[in-house]
Structures are given as C-alpha cells and as structure tokens.
Amino acid sequence: MINFQKKQVKIISVIIAAVFIFSIVALGVSQYQSGMAGASSSNVGIVDYSQLISQHPGMQAAREKYEDAAKQVQEEFSQQAGSMTPEQQQQFIEQKQKEMQDKQKELLDPIRTSIETQVQSVADSRGINVVLDKNNVLYGGQDITQEVLQKLQAEGDTTTTSDATADTATTDSTATNENSATTETSGDATNTAQ
User: Fold this and answer.
1) Which of 3, 35, 119, 161 is deepest in the core (most CB within 10 A)?
2) Mean pLDDT, consecutive 10-residue segments, the chain of 194 residues?
C-alpha cells in the first residue's frame, strides 16, 4: 500500500515537472516571437547587466559591507553555538539568513536604481524604445553598455566628490565648534580669574 502511494506521488511529481517545463518552453517561445516582432518596429538597445552590476562604482563598497556583516554573523554564531540546542542553532541560522538577504537587498537596491536611471538616460538620448539584457538577445540591438558605464562612473565621481565635500564640511564645522568651545571655556576661565 505504501509503495503504491510512493509510486503515485512520483508519477504526479513527474507530470507536474513536465507541465512546468513545457510551460516555460512555451512562454520562452512566445516571448521570443513577440520580441522579434517588436524588434522590427522599434529601436532596441542591449546592455550587459552583469557587467554594469560588477563594474558599478558602488559595488566594491557594497561587497565590503556585506562581507563585514557576514563575518559578524559568523563570529556571533561561533560564540553562541556551544550554548545552543540544535533547534536553536537552526533557528539562529534561518534568522541570520533572512537578515543577510535583507542586507543584500538594502545594499544592491541603490545600485540597481542607479543603473536603471542611467540606462533610461542613455536610451532616451539615443531614441531607444526598448533595452534588453545582452544575455537574452540572439541577434541585433545597439549595445549601450559602455556608455551607461561611463555615466555610472561620472555619477560615482560626483557622489564621491560630494561625499568628500560633505565630510570636509562636517570636519570643518566640528573643528569650528571645538574652537568655539575652547574659546568660550578660555573666556569663562578669564572671567572667573577676574
């Protein structure tokens, strides 16, 4: 009886998998055909999205922040693992995986938004109606990856410059406040001495 049920479950699983695969193939073919029809009537651009992500000026800092967070989680787990039951360890791991996924999203969302903004800017300036990932295109399209990268680099330079300016302004105002406090303290000491 149990073997019969296992066989039924396997058969049902195979059928579901086959339907799923067929659906994906059918969807891919229909999207390919509609993409080809749309490509002939519009100006299509392509970008290497993985290159844009990996070479984005903010990616290195995001990667470092993520690695630091991962090290902290590892250290925390190493410190607490000895006093946890296996269930508590599993719960800890699941919670930290969720936190790390949230951290990854938090770090990558601004990068993705920046890329999308620059892709749209380049596409608009060139009169491109549709931009596709290079990995999804068999033939054709204007590759705008390098132009987008240049805009991202310029955006990164501007952000770095404005961050440095803000840091300098903060440092200057802190130094000014410290000097004011020193002057006031000196003045108070002079008044007290009189």
Assistant:
1) 119
2) 56 62 59 50 84 92 93 89 88 91 93 94 92 90 92 75 45 44 43 42
